[in-house]
Amino acid sequence: xxxxxxxxxxxxxxxxxxxxxxxxxxxxxxxxxxxxxxxxxxxxxxxxxxxxxxxxxxxxxxxxxxxxxxxxxxxxxxxxxxxxxxxxxxxxxxxxxxxxxxxxxxxxxxxxxxxxxxxxxxxxxxxxxxxxxxxxxxxxxxxxxxxxxxxxxxxxxxxxxxxxxxxxxxxxxxxxxxxxxxxxxxxxxxxxxxxxxxxxxxxxxxxxxxxxxxxxxxxxxxxxxxxxxxxxxxxxxxxxxxxxxxxxxxxxxxxxxxxxxxxxxxxxxxxxxxxxxxxxxxxxxxxxxxxxxxxxxxxxxxxxxxxxxxxxxxxxxxxxxxxxxxxxxxxxxxxxxxxxxxxxxxxxxxxxxxxxxxxxxxxxxxxxxxxxxxxxxxxxxxxxxxxxxxxxxxxxxxxxxxxxxxxxxxxxxxxxxxxxxxxxxxxxxxxxxxxxxxxxxxxxxxxxxxxxxxxxxxxxxxxxxxxxxxxxxxxxxxxxxxxxxxxxx
Length: 489
Prior knowledge:
Elements: E1 6-9, E2 14-17, E3 25-30, H1 41-59, E4 63-68, H2 86-94, H3 98-115, H4 131-143, E5 147-150, E6 153-156, H5 158-164, H6 175-181, E7 197-202, E8 218-220, H7 222-234, E9 238-244, H8 248-263, E10 268-274, E11 277-279, E12 282-283, H9 294-299, H10 311-319, E13 327-329, H11 331-353, H12 364-376, H13 381-399, H14 407-424, H15 430-456, H16 460-472, E14 475-480, E15 483-488
Parallel strand pairs: 3-4, 3-9, 9-10, 11-13
Antiparallel strand pairs: 1-2, 5-6, 6-7, 7-8, 11-12, 14-15
Helix pairs in contact: 1-10, 2-3, 4-7, 4-8, 7-8, 10-11, 11-13, 12-13, 12-14, 13-14, 15-16
C-alpha cells in the first residue's frame, strides 16, 4: 500500500509499522462499556478514538473485523474480586431482572454512539453470552498448572506464571513491588497471594447472576471475558487490542497472562491505549464524582456546564487532541471546539460554491498528503485538523479573490474534505445528522413505490433488482399482505 501506517505499541513502547498478521485482513478488539450507568466523556473518547482507527484502516483498504464487547457480568465493585456485581446490585435495588438493566443501558449507549457518529463494530459480544468459552479457558489455564481452585473459586497464580513468563511486561509493573505493596484484604484469604485474580468466583447465596460449573455455581472473573471473546472471534493471535489507559493494569496485563497460559502464545501484536479525560487535572470518572454524562452534555443540564453541546462538538473536541495525550475538560475548551467546527462546516459550504481558475496559487496536493502523513503517524488527528484549517484559509482567500484554484486543485480540495472530514474524522454537519432519518424514510418510500409499480406491471426483473441492490446496502425488504416494509439488517 502507498501509505505506511505507524502505530505506537504500548507493549514495545515505540512506534511500529503496521503489518497485519493476515493481510489484507485486520483484527481489532476494543474493550467496550460496562453497562451499569450512562456513558460519560471518557467512554466517548475511547469510542471515538478507536472509531478513527477503524475508519482509517478501512480507508487504507483493509478488511477489518472490529470486535467491541459489552461487559454485563463479573465486574464487581471497586474492580476487585470481592463485593457485589454492579449490574446485579442495581437490579436488586430497582427490583429488575439483571438483563433488563443491561438492555436499558446498552440501548442508551448505542443511542449515544449513533449521535456521535461512531460506526457500529463488526461484532459486539456480551460476556453473559460467552460463559461456556470462559469456563473452557479457565479449565485450560488450570490444566497448564498456572491456576488453582480454592473454595469453589479458581484463581490465576501470578507468581508461578511470572517464573515462566513475565507478568508486568505491558504495564511495566514489577512483581516484587506488587508482593511488597499489596496488602491482604478481608475476604481474600482463599488466594495464595493477594494479587492473584479470579478466573471463576463462587457465587454467594444472595448473588443473582450465576452459572453452573464443575467448581461451583458462580460467575467468571472480569478479566477472563475479553481473553475468551477475542480468541473466539479473532483467533488466538490478532492484530490490535485497544482500550483506555486505565485498563492497562490490571485488566490488559491479566489478559496477556491468561491467553499465554491457555494458548501458549502472545495474544496481541499491537496494544493501543487512549489517555484520560481530566477535569482540573483529575481523571473524569464515577469514583471521583466529577463525571458528566453524554446526555447531560447534549442537554446542558449539569451544574458544571454553561450551555448544551452538540454531539459533533463533543466529537471534534475529542479529535482535537492526540489519542495518547490527556484531554482536559472545560467549558472554554468546548466552546472553542464549537467555533472551530463551525469554521470547518462554513468553509465546506463555501468550497462547494467556488469556481475554478486557469491556474492555482496553492499547493493542494501537498496539503492532502500532509493529512495522510499525519494519519500515518499514529493517527495524529490534531495535525489533520490543523491541515484542514489551512484549507479553510485557502478557501476563504479564493472566495475573496486573493488566491486561485484550478479545476484539478479545486476537485482535489473537495475530495480532501470529503475523505478526511467525513470519512475518516467522521464529522457531519448538525443539519445533516438531524435530517438523515427523515430523508432516508422519504427515499425508501419512493423506492418501494417504484418497486410496487414494477411488480404491478409484472416487471419482476426490475422488482428483484431493486430488492437485491437494497440488500447489498444492508436494507432488507419484506413483502407482507399489507405491502412492502423495510428495515436494516
